[in-house]
Each structure stands twice: as C-alpha cells, then as structure tokens.
Amino acid sequence: MIHRGIASFGLDYGQCPPWLFERMVKLGREMVYVLIAEYGPDEFIKRIADPAWFQSLGTVLAFDWNASGLTTILTAALKEAIRGHEREYGIAICGGKGKTSRKTPDEILSWGDRMMISAPLANNLVYNSKMSAKVDSALVQDGFDLYHHAFFFSRNGAWAVVQQGMNKEKRSARRYHWYSKNINDLVAEPHSGISSPVMINRVLDLTAAKSDKTREISTELVQNGYAPLMKDITLLRKYSSRLSQMAKIRIGSDGRTSQQLTLLNLESREFKYHPVLHEDFSKSKYLEKILAKVADRKPGSYESLVSIEGVGAKTMRALALVGEVIYGAAPSYEDPARYSFAHGGKDATPYPVDRKTYDETIVMLANAVRKTHLPAVDKQKAIARLG
Fold first, then answer.
1. Cα-flanking dihedrals φ and ψ of residue 188, to 5°?
2. Do strands 159-167 and 145-154 pair parallel, antiparallel, or not at all (unpaired)?
3. Is the Cβ–Cβ distance between 75 and 149 less than 8 Å?
4. DSSP state, residue 265
C-alpha cells in the first residue's frame, strides 16, 4: 500500500452530461449507503483519502478513469448523493470546485452544528481544511495551481481532503489526498495516496523529510526579528545574480553573522537550474510587509508560520532560499510524486503490482455494487467498469 503521493491526470475541458451526472448521483447514493452500512463512516472517510480507491469509485460511477474531471464531478456527485442524509450517514462533504471551495469553512461549521460536533472540534476541522490548502499551494511548489478543494469528515472527527491543481503549460491536473489518521505533522509529509506518471523537475518540496533543516531555519529566521531577517534578504537580493560563483563576504558585527560567510556554490556541474538564479529579488514592499508581520508575530513553529494570513509561496520560498544559500540548509527539490498508478504496472514499472491492495479495492467496491438496489443490468455494467 502506498502511503503518500500525488495523482496526475490530463486536463478535461468538457462538461459532464446531465444524464451521466444524474446516473452518478443515483449510483453514488446507493454505494455510499451500502459502504457506510457495511464499514462505518470513518472507514468511508479513510477510503476517500486513498487515491486508488477514489479513482476506482469514480470509474464505477461511470466517469472517465484518467480525466481531471473525475475529481470534480465525483465530488459533486457524492455531495449531491448524500444531500439530506448527512446526519443519517454520519458524514459531510464540504467545498468543491472554484468559488464553491471558498465556502468550505462555513459548510464545515454548519454541518458540525447539525451533527452536534463540539465547537472546538468543528473549528479544528476548519483549521485543517485551510492548512491543507495552504500547504499544497505554498509548501509544495510544483507548478500546479489549486482550483478544487473538498473536505470530507465524519461525526467522529475523522477527515479527508481531496484537492486538485492545474498546470496549464503541461495540460495536466494533479490531485492531492490527505487523511487525518495518517498525519503526525501538517507540514511534514502529510499526504496519503499515490503519485503521478508525470514527474516534474525542480519541485521545491518544503514538506519533505529532507527539508527538515529548512523548516527549522525558516522558523528561526522570523523568530530573530525583522532587522536581522532583512539583512539576510538584502544579502540574497544582492548576490542572487552572482550565485554561480563562490563568494566570500563579511557582514555585520551582531554576533550571528559577523563571521566569514561562504555562499552556496551553484556550479553548472552541480545544478542545471536553481530557483534562486531566476528569482526576482528586487525590492518587494509586499514581501517586506509580510516578513515584518511574521517577524512581529514570532511564530513558535513552522506550522504556525505557514498558517499566518498572507504567507504564501513566495514568502516561504524566500525563507527557504535564505536558509539554503546563506546557512547551507538545502531543501528537497524532488517531486514528491513516486509512482505512476496505485497498484504498479504489469511489467513491474515503476514497481510490481500490489496484488493484495488491488484485489481488496475490487472486492470491496464490487460487493458494494452487488448490495445496492439497482437493476441487475446497471450492477453488471458497474462491475464491468471496475474490472
């Protein structure tokens, strides 16, 4: 079983025909009812967080298996399918595509109240929803812009996130899955699932274990105050166009930076590309404003730093590059994607088929189809699609 990663799909610009969406809602309602009756609401949330299972469910409900629209249409169909049955099933689905995603916090609080979830737990669910979106937009800098965010949760507090980003240049979409029970740290390798057949070069992944030191130094930089931080930013600006050479300078006498300093060596034999070489470090009043804000707050952890309103990809990238170029803490530049599909390939590429997981997925969904109250013909078609 793969525990973390990303799924990628080709962009789908078409629309789901009304007749197909209606069928997906109808079958989806039956499937959700049977699955929750059989396994319980928490297990349903866990399965939604598994990209392989999510993908398979979309296929059973008759949507294109490898199109980006599967994510948005399946989420919308499931949301419509359980409408009016949320309290009965013990689950809620919030958010969706585009503007609908912005309603997620209000929807979480509304359903939390109706399901009699305590206010602290409901507020924590809202926080997790916001942080998952912030992490995948600010810390996983892979060139995919988020346009879909869905938050699934149970009455017991289990939650899953399914969100998707778009890369117009590569004409592809990437889906990110989160599952509450698998997460020890929201900013350190929090994803669950599979990865992309399309590997992206030069991804700044600040959630990777390899970026531990970067996260630590970024937090220290803002805790030390605005003046010392801006000295480092100014230094980075000054030398960003000359970092293909070794440079030695003396700066300040404040104790922290009064020693001889060696900047990062970016010789062509080591790097064909590095973000600092192409970063625009010209004076940015907005960046300085955000850095002043976070330095004033002095967040106690990297997660607290990321959670501050206004902190985005450029802020975190600037701090990461200061940590790397000046203090030698290199972050991960590897795409967190690892595998092409959930169960591997028949030719053992990129790894052998995980038959156990494959069979479990098929058996669970096939059994659920058989237990629905659909006509026999519809059941046969659904099982055939799963096969």
1. -130, 105
2. antiparallel
3. no
4. P
106 touches 129 (CB < 8 A): no
Neighbours of 259 (CB within 10 A): 10
- pTM (2 decimals)? 0.83
Q: Count Cβ atoms below 10 Å from residue 85 Cβ, excluding itself.
A: 14
309-356 pLDDT, tens digit per residue, is: 999 999 999 999 999 988 999 999 988 865 434 344 444 444 455 667
What angle do helix axes 285-297 and 313-325 make, rounded to 10 degrees?
Answer: 80
Neighbours of 108 (CB within 10 A): 26
Torsion of CA 58, 15, 191, 335, to 10 degrees: 120
Q: How far apart are CA 102 and CA 365, in angstroms?
A: 31
Asked if 229 and 356 count as a contact pair (C-beta separation under 8 A), the reply is no
The answer to whether 148 and 71 are in contact (CB under 8 A) is yes
Mean pLDDT check: name the lowest of 24-28, 85-89, 98-102, 242-246.
242-246
Helix (H, G, I), strand (E, B) or coil at 92: strand
In the chain, the amino acid numbered 63 is F
Q: Which long-range contacts (CB under 8 A, 24 or more apart) does 269-277 make?
A: 273/201, 273/202, 274/243, 275/202, 275/204, 275/317, 275/321, 276/236, 276/240, 276/243, 276/321, 276/324, 276/325, 277/240, 277/243, 277/244
Find tokens 């599967």 and name the residue: 70
Q: Where are the domains of the chain?
A: 6-203+342-386, 209-325
